[in-house]
Write a structure and sequence with these properties.
Jelly Rolls; 375 residues; 19% strand; alpha+beta
């Protein structure tokens, strides 16, 4: 069943918008947002229309020149102590002032990055019947999952986006649990991202004045959750969003984006474009890192604009344990080495499992999941 127009029901002589029915129709179609585009719709269904105040435009051109996401060159950090010190200083500035930065010379080849983007594009653009085999809303499923909007039934407005997701660490999936069209490249790419993540957590530990392996040793880099996003061209991009205003429920996110653009970061109360740099990876700090650093490293809100210039692809690698082992009771709270009388703990301890459960229940509603964990 394809959603092509808003549904209404009559109640006491008044027309009432039946949002739940339309959401269920989209869900039951198992073809996602791309299915709507393929059906040839020229007006977006009402479920996708966002409140106008959430659609505010980015800062003007002058501010775009004034603000740009830091780009950090990781070349030589393992061979030259002076290069490493330079990068640690740059990462520290980016973390404390932006919560976002891009990295180049990160050890993942341009060829592999391009193959990964192409693999996700091929998955989403293949025969819908092949995609339907992976359609699921079961977040505990270890098989790769295709769905549209993880918070479809919770969010105030639906986002113009489909997603392929899978858990890649600490327990790697069986190859047969991944789509044939991109499974091999996902596993290859994730190995390289795990290595980069370990390096980034070393740098973050040193920025905090801790031993280099501190954050790796407490498990920040042991879990990896993979999201292959697809944003089809939208006939009315001014009415909706690709991804609404949110922060990530992760320790760290490594994002690979194509050249279409649309990602924006909220910086000094203005939306700033994250201009794609071919071969670069976007790094952003997540809520769990803000929690354990006691607000030293902010998890910054960001969003993706809907566009009609083409299909945007991005690959988000979330460093967090998406499906913790049943006996996983490790608690995360503000790191004790960072706590002083002048800097008392802001958050209570939580397990990653409880944090993720709250994040999923809340959905992308613009309110930080961290609010719930404040002391």
């Amino acid at each position: 069943m394809v959603v092509t127009s808003s549904k209404h029901i009559e109640h006491d002589g008044e027309s009432i918008y039946d949002r739940q029915s339309e959401l269920k129709a989209l869900d039951d179609s198992k073809t996602g947002v791309k299915g709507l585009v393929d059906a040839g719709l020229v007006k977006i269904p009402r479920i996708f229309i966002h409140d106008q105040q959430n659609l505010s435009k980015p800062s003007n051109g002058d501010d775009q020149q004034k603000f740009s996401i830091p780009v950090i060159d990781l070349q030589g950090i393992d061979e030259d102590p002076f290069s490493r010190k330079r990068v640690i200083d740059q990462v520290g500035y980016a973390c404390e002032n932006w919560g976002f930065f891009q990295v180049v010379n990160h050890g993942i080849s341009l060829e592999l990055l391009d193959k990964m983007v192409d693999g996700i594009r091929r998955f989403h653009e293949q025969d819908p019947e092949l995609k339907k085999e992976f359609y699921s809303r079961d977040s505990t499923n270890r098989r790769a999952r295709f769905s549209t909007n993880f918070d479809l039934y919770q969010a105030p407005a639906t986002n113009w986006r489909d997603t392929l997701s899978c858990v890649l660490a600490p327990r790697a999936p069986n190859p047969e649990d991944l789509p044939e069209v991109c499974g091999e490249i996902i596993l290859d790419y994730s190995d390289k991202v795990m290595a980069l993540g370990s390096t980034l957590f070393q740098l973050l530990s040193q920025v905090l004045g801790l031993t280099p392996n501190y954050l790796n040793d407490i498990g920040c880099s042991e879990g990896l959750f993979f999201l292959g996003h697809y944003y089809p061209p939208c006939p009315e991009p001014e009415l909706t969003l690709g991804t609404s205003n949110h922060s990530d429920g992760t320790f760290l996110t490594v994002l690979l984006q194509d050249q279409i653009g649309g990602l924006q970061v909220l910086h000094e109360n203005q939306w700033v474009n994250v201009t794609p740099v071919h071969g670069a990876l976007v790094i952003n700090l997540g809520d769990l890192l803000q929690l354990i650093t006691n607000d030293r490293f902010p998890s910054v809100n960001h969003r993706v604009l809907a566009q009609n210039v083409g299909s945007r692809v991005s690959v988000a690698s979330f460093f967090r344990t998406q499906i913790p082992p049943e006996n996983s009771s490790r608690l995360y709270g503000p790191i004790k080495e960072l706590i002083t009388k002048e800097n008392p703990p802001i958050y209570r301890e939580t397990t990653v499992k409880d944090f993720v459960q709250h994040y999923y229940t809340k959905g992308l509603n613009g309110v930080s999941a961290l609010e719930y964990f404040k002391l």
